[in-house]
């Protein structure tokens, strides 16, 4: 069974893990109601996406 001969340094482990960081969600204002929503997602407030009503809102 293969076993490492020497311990990897903390610097080397950190370099390998440098791409594992979480990125913040991209938020854009909804053109209809103005609330911040993630891109390519139906607005949770008004239910519109790409200028069309996808979800009927209860008012």
Automatic annotation (TrEMBL):
Protein name, as recorded: Large ribosomal subunit protein bL32
Annotated GO MF terms: structural constituent of ribosome
Keywords of the record: Ribonucleoprotein, Ribosomal protein
Compositional bias per record (Basic residues), positions renumbered to this chain: 1-22
Gene Ontology, cellular component aspect: large ribosomal subunit
Annotated segments matching region Disordered: 1-26
Keyword Ribosomal protein: yes
Taxonomic placement: Bacteria, Pseudomonadati, Planctomycetota, Planctomycetia, Pirellulales
Family per record: Belongs to the bacterial ribosomal protein bL32 family.
InterPro entries assigned: Ribosomal_bL32, Ribosomal_bL32_bact, Ribosomal_zn-bd
UniProt KW rRNA-binding keyword: no
One Pfam family, short name: Ribosomal_L32p
GO biological process: translation
Domain of life: Bacteria
